[in-house]
Amino acid sequence: MMKKYLLPLLMIVVAASCGQQENKNEEAGTTTSDSTKEREVWSKEKANDWYATKGWLAGSNFTPSTAINQLEFWQAETFDTATIDRELGWAEGIGFNVMRVFLHHVAWQVDKEGFKQRMNEYLSIADKHHISTMFVFFDDCWDSVYQAGKQREPKPGIHNSGWVKDPGKLYYEEPALIDTLEMYVKDVLTTFKNDKRILLWDLYNEPGNSGYGNKSMVLLSQAFSWARQIDPDQPLSAGVWKPDLTELNKFQLENSDVITYHNYNKEDEHAKVIDSLKQYGRPLICTEYMARTRGSLFSNIMPLLKKENVGAINWGLVAGKTNTMYAWDTPMPDGKEPKVWFHDIFRKDGTVYSEAEIKLIKSLTGAK
């Protein structure tokens, strides 16, 4: 998620072990909290049959422009249905049919029923715009310090200056948090396990980021275990993103019903990653791409993804409080609009960064 690691070839990960299934909890040194039977990973046949019904998936990672992070998105005081409706309407207008949306356990912890009601409200708005949703539970990116309530204001010109991890370092400092996280995942999944508006559950964004490495294996394994106990209709996944996290990559690829991945490279390198992932025989969805100053563009990557029938979910949709029009490593403290945007498609007033990009996107999605 918006980082400098760009996922080169994944061939190094686990070619020799492809298709082998091991005891995931023993491998990660964990046990489940109860004896509920866990369902198996979907067969390749089931996964491909599911994917064949979806058509080509194209969309964005979505945070409304009025939210700096997941908490400002989902807390009752700042849940902004008017902006969500307006901005998803713009997405519908260019033919996007899926959004990847991050949750946060603190918003659930403060107001469990209200949180789920807001999820349902979001899903109703998205469905009205013919957009399915991929929800993300955990995230190892950006700030470890977070709290409920009012969120800080963006730092001018600083990429994602207010995004927060979930659960971050609190997971290692408060052992009892694991019980809360288990209840959170299971409650949300139980509530929405049969909801056809949800495309897929992305259990963990970029495990091992922020220097955590294999420390993230325990929570990653637990997340899959909890989800399999609930056994939702929707597939489960956790996207691979960095090639030298070999143990995490191996686990993610062996345990995902549908393979998801991140890549912010140019076309030739991205194509090699697709080829390396095809060996698993499962549907592929790229859940993060498009960083203009690094050569990952709509013009070269989106046609490649459609040609290969790989789902295409870029970062992000509307330039707002997340400041993702600014590059990871190129702050602009004066807060001026950069000449070349890093991410995003629309401004908050609905005007677009590039008419040529919009024309290309609509030509690929079939939007009028």
Explain what you see.
InterPro entries: GH (IPR017853), Glyco_hydro_2_cat (IPR006103). One of its GO terms (biological process) is carbohydrate metabolic process. It comes from Parafilimonas terrae. Residues 21-41 are annotated as: Disordered. GO terms for molecular function: hydrolase activity, hydrolyzing O-glycosyl compounds. The structure is a single chain. The chain has one domain (39-365): Glycosidases (TIM Barrel, Alpha-Beta Barrel). Helix 5 (81-93) packs parallel to helix 7 and helix 10 packs parallel to helix 11 (246-255). An eight-stranded parallel β-sheet has the order 5-4-3-2-1-8-7-6. The longest helix is centred in the first third of the chain and has 17 residues, at 112-128. The protein starts with 10 loop residues before the first helix and ends with a helix. With 368 residues, the chain is of the alpha/beta class. Mean pLDDT is 92; it is low at 11-34. It has 14 helices and eight strands.
Write the layout of secondary structure elements.
Layout: H1 11-14, H2 24-28, H3 44-52, E1 58-61, H4 70-74, H5 81-93, E2 98-102, H6 105-110, H7 112-128, E3 132-139, H8 170-173, H9 177-192, E4 198-205, H10 217-230, E5 236-237, H11 246-255, E6 259-262, H12 267-278, E7 284-288, H13 298-307, E8 311-315, H14 355-365
Parallel strand pairs: 1-2, 1-8, 2-3, 3-4, 4-5, 6-7, 7-8
Helix pairs in contact: 5-7, 9-10, 10-11, 13-14
Short note summarizing the structure:
The chain is of the alpha/beta class and 368 residues long. It is 37% helix and 11% strand. Residues 21-34 have a biased composition (Polar residues).
